[in-house]
Amino acid sequence: MGGRLLLVCRLLVRDLRRRRAETVLLLLAISAATATLTLGLALDNALAEPYERTRAATAGPDVVATPVTTGPGALAALTPLATAPGVTARSGPYPMAYLMMTAHGRTVQTVVQGRDTSPAALDRPAVTSGTWVRPGGVVVEPTFANALGLHTGDTVEVNGHPLEVVGTAVTAARAVYPRADWRFPGSILIQSSGLVWVDSSQIGALAGGQRLSYTMNLKLADPHASTSFRNKIRGGVEYRSWKAIAEADGKLVRKAHTALLLGSWLLTMLAVASVASIVAGRIVEQRRRVGLLKAVGAGPAMIAAVHLAEYLVIGLAAAGVGLAAGWLAAPALTNPGAGLLGSTGVHPPALRTVVTVTALALAIAAAATLTPVLRAATTDTVDALADAATPPRRRGWRVWLSRRMPTALLLGVRVNARRPRRARLVMVNTLITTTALAALLMGLAQDRQVKLGESELADPQDTRTLQAMLLVVGVLCLLALINAIVSTWTAVLDARHPLAVARALGATPGEVTVGMAVAQLLPATPGVALGIPAGIGLFLTVSAGEIRYAPASWMLGVALAVLLAVAVLTAIPAVLTARRPVADTLHSAPA
């Protein structure tokens, strides 16, 4: 047993040293999938923790009460709540006005809340830049400030009154832009808006003739009781629990979380295809060694162990690389946004992530290598030493059809007939790549603007989702490019001797080059054709509301670009091989 283990280890080290480039490609392929999965797990935490930190740091209330009425009637409706059973603390009532604010030439709906300079028992907004409210100044919620491009020292107009932006602050008592719930006074219908604070002594002048609304923050003896409120109107007062506010804030990253999880699945499938493609090429090269091992007495189990050990080691290394990359990138991507505390983002749960990522990496390595390894291990010794390709199945109609094919097309069809599994991997590679690109184009076609009265501003939720999609598609395209390069080079090297025979029988170097391009384009074309509707369907499945379809010209451009990339990547090694003299190529063929 010790001797066999020593042999496996020696062959493992030898293979890793001899095939360093392929080892790096395998490492990158599996690492891309594991890194994306790590980011997806990190976003699981990002959906809740930033609001929890903000609520703890700002003494967030359990329930926020806002009367439907305005003026003295609103104050009268809030008065009994201060002494209601189960209420242990309160702050307010604070005056509010639903006004229009103009900044940098854009007029938007804004919830203006009056506050005192002294800290309150509940809801103490945390200043993130500048200072807290003072006469003549306004404090803006950070996500709202980012959408408007506001900075400390800028000047805005609230209902025609100029005010200086003295700072930005976050709160857990109201959802971040664009869900600050602007409404016409006395109405229960809410609209998108942002939140600002001003000195309480000024809000009456800013509102002009508009009657003020009011809001009160409540803390309950049993915080869990607040979840029964959600968004309910009782006795003319609207109650909103902290859970409802947390859900509204969590929407900033929820779509991005979905995009990353779906992207991790696409990357996993592409990684399996990539590893299978690389392994298939290596198994072809290693068939002679399989024959030699069998010739000296090694059994199928020993041969399978020799090959699987190498890929499992690479899988473990890739799990570590992907975990490290995802762990380092998680804080930036899971940044909860300027409207919540914890701008450094969050890391995924350590133990769960390590176990999940390691299992995924090993599963990719095992799933992609098991079939070719077992096939090589069960190959007859003589066939393995001969390293014969799959013999084409001759049928009468095929022979008849091949006689009428152009030379380049015939060569391409015969190359795929020799290695049919490689052709299927090319189709899977293009299918997954085109699916992701089509979904990205659908995302780019959406209207990522929020209407706030007279103007439109960027929607931070869609912006974050698009960033996640760009990240996933970028990594996926890089992995697909690596996969295509490996596949085309392996195909050209594997077919160099049959192509040399074709040239000896009269085929020109140009026909050989086009034939290799055709060999890759034949399986790539159905992959692209299926990938366009698959990407559109994937986007429609996870999207809600009104959907805008990407122009057909965009989809056609992506399809042609993918096919052109496949053709170019194939033509380059084919041209280099075709420049080699036929005699040299045939002389190097194995006897």
UniProtKB/TrEMBL annotation:
The chain crosses the membrane at residues 259-280, 301-330, 350-370, 425-445, 465-492, 528-547, 554-576. Residues 26-234 form the MacB-like periplasmic core domain. Keywords: Cell membrane, Membrane, Transmembrane, Transmembrane helix. Residues 264-379, 471-580 form the ABC3 transporter permease C-terminal domain. The keyword Transmembrane helix applies. It is a multi-pass membrane protein. InterPro entries: ABC3_permease_C, MacB_PCD, Macrolide_Exporter_MacB. Its main location: membrane. It is found in: Cell membrane. Belongs to the ABC-4 integral membrane protein family. This is FtsX-like permease family protein. It comes from Micromonospora musae.
